[in-house]
Design brief:
The complex is a heterodimer. Chain A is α/β, with parallel strands linked by helices. Chain A is built from 11 helices and 10 strands. Chain A has a domain at 5-98 and 174-256: P-loop containing nucleotide triphosphate hydrolases (Rossmann fold). In chain A, the strands form 2 sheets. Chain A has a 6-stranded mixed β-sheet with strand order 6-7-8-3-9-10, sandwiched between helices. A 4-stranded antiparallel β-sheet of chain A has the order 2-1-4-5, covered by helices on one side. In chain A, β4 (64-71) and β5 form a beta hairpin. By secondary structure, chain B is an alpha/beta fold. Chain B has a single domain, classed as P-loop containing nucleotide triphosphate hydrolases (Rossmann fold). Chain B has helices at residues 57-64, 104-107, 114-127, 138-144, 161-174, 191-207, 219-225, 243-248, 253-260; strands at residues 14-23, 31-41, 46-50, 72-77, 80-81, 97-100, 179-183, 211-215, 228-233, 236-242. In chain B, the strands form 2 sheets. A 6-stranded mixed β-sheet of chain B has the order 6-7-8-3-9-10, sandwiched between helices. A 4-stranded antiparallel β-sheet of chain B has the order 2-1-4-5, covered by helices on one side. In chain B, α4 packs across α5. The longest helix of chain B is centred in the middle third of the chain and has 17 residues, at 191-207. Classes of the chains: A alpha/beta, B alpha/beta.
Chain lengths: 264, 321
C-alpha cells in the first residue's frame, strides 16, 4: 500500500463477496492512483476478476458484498443503481479479455463508439463522430474514419482489443479495469497493446487495475503488484520487489511455476 | 499400456510437401493462406507451430486433417495420401489423425452425453482394427485426462472450459491416434488451465508413441512442450529447428521479433519490443520475402527475392549460402 492515501482515486477496503453461500472474497484491500497501473495476479478462482467486477457493480445476481469501494470518496457498493450506471463506462470503465465477445458483432464500430459518447456525454451526432475518429487514432487504428463504418469481424483480434480500449476510454474515465486484456492476443500484438495501455496511463493520468495471470505482462507494465489467493490479497508491493524478492510463499510458487522463467 | 509400432521409425509419420491452400472469395483473387509449406512430424515427436493469427497455422492444421482441400502440394500420413474429407466417411487409415479444436464449447455436441461422444472414438479405433480399443471404456479415457469416471454420464455444459477441452482430448485419444493435431487447443481456456492442458496433451501423445502437431500462438507454452518448433509467417515457414536451439539462438528476424515480444517476469518494467506494422493481407502478400516490410534487417533485394527454407532451418537472405 502507498503511504499517501489522499491520491487514491479508487480505494477498496475490506471487500467481501459471498455468492451462493460461498465466500469468494474475504476482505480485499487495494488502492489505485492516477497514472499508475496496479497489477492483480493470481490463479483462476482466486477472485481477481470478481474484484474487478465488484468495482463496476457487475457482479452476478445474488452476490452479497461487504466492505467499501471508494471512488473519489463515494462508496460504490452503496450507491443507488442509477448513479452507479452513470459512473459505469464513464468514470470507471472496463476492458474485457476477449474482444470478439465484448464488441457487438452486428453494430459498426462507429455505432458502438458514438452510442456510448452520445449516451454519457450527450454529444450530438457530428461531435460524437469526430471524437470517435480521434479515439481510434489514439489507439492507433489505421484509417480511423473508414474504420468507423466497419464491423468487429473485419478487424484482427489486436485491432478489436484496441477498439474495445477506445470505447472504454471514450468518456475519459479516471479508472480503467482491464481484465486479462492481452490474454487472447498474439505476443507481438500484446506488446503493442501493453505499450498503448502504459502510454494512455501516463498521458491521461488513468488509474488502471490490470488483472492478469501473466507475470511477464505484470512485470512489463505494472507499477504495483498484488497477488491474490483464495479471495485474499496475500502480497502487495512495488513490481520490482514482488517479482524479484517475493515475501509470500504463494508468490514464490507462482513465480517458480512460470514456463518462461529463465530469461532468454 | 500399448506402444504403437511405426513401420519405419525414421520415416516421418506426417509429411507435408510444398502445400498450398487457397481460399476463394467471389470477385477477388484467391488468398493463399498456406503458400508452400513443408513440414514433418515423426512418431513420438511434438512439433510446435507458432505464428501470429492470420498466418495460416489453422489452415495448415485443417489441411493435415483433411478438412480443407489443398490447391497444390502433398500431405501424407503414414504413407497414405491425405485426401480432403467429403460427404463419405473418412478413410479408415486416416482416422489415425485426430484433431483437438480450439473451442471446446463448439467442438462437443451439447446434446449427447460425454461418454457416448468418447465411445464414438473408441468405435472408430475398433473399426480400424485396433484390437486393444475394444477393452477401452470412456471412463478409462476420462480418468487418463484427469477427470472423474462419472463425467461420462454428464453433458458438456456441466463442465468448465478446461474440463471440456480435456473431454475433447479424451475423445480424440479414444480413436487411438498416431498423430494428434491440436489447433490452438489451449487458447480458449482459462489462463491457469492452459499449461495443464498443454502438458497433458504432450504426455498423452508421447506416452502412446503418437506424434503431436501443436499449434499455438503462445510461445512460452510451445517452448515448454515442443521438441521442435516451426515458425510461420504469412503462409510460409520462416524458421524451424529444435525448440531449445531456436529459443537460444533465433535466426530469422521474425523469430527474433516474436521472442523479443514475450514479456519477461523479471520485475524490471521493460516493455516488450513491439514489431511495427500488422501482418499483411494474405490475399496480397508483399513481393520477395513476405516479412521484408516489417523486417528491421531488410536489405537490398529482400523485396524481390523470395528466400527458401535452407537446410539450416531458416528462410532468410541473411543466411543465404
Amino acid at each position: 500500500m502507498t503511504d499517501g492515501d489522499s491520491v487514491d482515486v479508487l480505494r477498496i477496503s475490506g471487500l467481501t463477496l459471498d455468492l451462493g453461500g460461498a465466500r469468494i472474497l474475504g476482505g480485499v484491500d487495494l488502492a489505485l492512483q492516477p497514472g499508475r497501473i496496479h497489477g492483480l495476479a493470481g490463479e483462476s478462482g482466486s477472485g481477481k476478476t470478481m474484484t474487478g467486477l465488484a468495482v463496476l457493480g457487475l457482479l452476478p445476481p445474488g452476490a452479497r458484498t461487504g466492505g467499501r469501494i471508494a471512488f473519489e470518496g463515494t462508496d460504490l457498493l452503496t450507491l443507488p443503481a442509477r448513479q452507479l450506471a452513470a459512473l459505469r463506462g464513464r468514470s470507471v470503465s472496463m476492458v474485457f479479455q476477449d474482444p470478439s465477445t465484448s464488441l457487438h458483432p452486428m453494430l459498426s464500430i462507429g455505432h458502438q463508439l458514438t452510442d456510448h459518447l452520445r449516451h454519457h456525454l450527450k454529444l450530438n451526432r457530428k461531435t460524437a463522430k469526430e471524437r470517435a475518429t480521434d479515439l481510434l487514432t489514439q489507439v492507433r487504428i489505421p484509417n480511423p474514419r473508414e474504420a468507423l463504418g466497419r464491423y468487429p469481424h473485419q478487424f484482427s483480434g489486436g485491432m478489436r482489443q484496441r477498439i474495445a480500449i477506445a470505447i472504454a476510454l471514450a468518456c475519459e474515465p479516471k479508472v480503467l479495469i482491464a481484465d486479462e486484456p492481452t490474454t487472447a492476443l498474439d505476443v507481438t500484438v500484446q506488446a503493442g497493446v501493453l505499450r498503448l495501455l502504459r502510454g494512455l496511463c501516463d498521458d491521461l493520468g488513468l488509474a488502471v487495475l490490470l488483472v492478469t495471470h501473466d507475470l511477464g505482462v505484470m512485470s512489463a507494465v505494472a507499477d504495483e503488484v498484488s497477488v491474490m489467493r483464495h479471495g485474499l490479497v496475500v502480497e502487495t508491493g512495488p513490481r520490482g520487489r514482488v517479482l524479484t524478492e517475493p515475501r509470500h510463499e504463494y508468490t514464490r510458487q507462482l513465480l517458480d511455476a512460470l514456463p518462461g522463467r529463465s530469461t532468454v | 499400456m500399448t506402444t504403437h509400432m511405426t513401420p519405419h521409425p525414421t520415416a516421418p509419420l506426417l509429411s507435408v510437401d510444398d502445400l498450398v491452400v487457397q481460399y476463394h472469395r467471389p470477385g477477388a483473387p484467391p488468398t493463399r493462406a498456406v503458400a508452400g509449406v513443408s513440414l514433418q512430424v515423426r512418431a513420438g515427436e511434438v512439433v510446435g507451430l507458432v505464428g501470429e493469427s492470420g498466418c495460416g497455422k489453422s489452415t495448415l492444421a485443417r489441411a493435415v486433417c483433411g478438412l480443407t482441400a489443398p490447391a497444390e502440394g502433398r500431405i501424407t500420413y503414414d504413407g497414405t495420401p491425405v485426401r480432403p474429407l467429403r460427404v463419405r466417411r473418412r478413410e479408415l487409415a486416416l482416422t489415425g489423425v485426430q484433431m483437438v479444436f480450439q473451442d471446446p464449447y463448439g467442438s462437443l455436441n451439447p446434446r449427447r452425453r460425454v461418454g457416448s461422444q468418447i465411445a464414438d472414438g473408441i468405435r472408430t479405433a475398433a473399426g480400424r482394427g485396433e484390437a486393444a480399443a475394444e477393452d477401452t471404456t470412456p471412463e478409462d479415457l476420462l480418468t487418463r485426462v484427469g477427470l472423474s469416471a462419472s463425467a461420462a454420464q454428464r453433458y458438456p455444459q456441466e463442465f468448465s472450459g478446461g474440463q471440456r477441452q480435456r473431454i475433447a482430448i479424451a475423445r480424440a485419444l479414444a480413436a487411438r491416434p498416431r498423430l494428434l493435431v491440436g489447433d490452438e487447443p489451449i487458447s480458449a481456456l482459462d489462463a491457469s488451465a492452459q499449461l495443464q492442458v498443454a502438458t497433458l496433451m504432450r504426455s498423452l501423445a508421447v506416452e502412446s508413441g503418437a506424434g503431436l502437431l501443436f499449434i499455438s500462438h503462445d510461445l512460452s507454452v510451445v517452448r515448454l512442450i515442443a521438441d521442435r518448433i516451426a515458425v510461420m509467417y504469412l503462409g510460409r515457414i520462416v524458421e524451424t529447428g529444435p525448440t531449445a536451439e531456436v529459443w537460444a539462438d533465433p535466426r530469422h528476424p521474425y523469430t527474433r521479433a516474436l521472442l523479443a515480444a514475450v514479456p519477461k517476469p523479471d520485475g524490471a518494467g521493460v516493455l516488450p519490443a513491439e514489431l511495427p506494422g500488422d501482418v499483411p493481407d494474405p490475399a496480397d502478400p508483399p513481393s520477395g520475402c513476405r516479412f521484408h516490410p516489417r523486417c528491421p534487417q531488410a536489405f537490398d533485394g529482400c523485396d524481390r527475392e523470395e528466400p527458401q527454407l535452407i537446410a539450416g532451418g531458416v528462410a532468410c537472405r541473411l543466411y543465404a549460402a
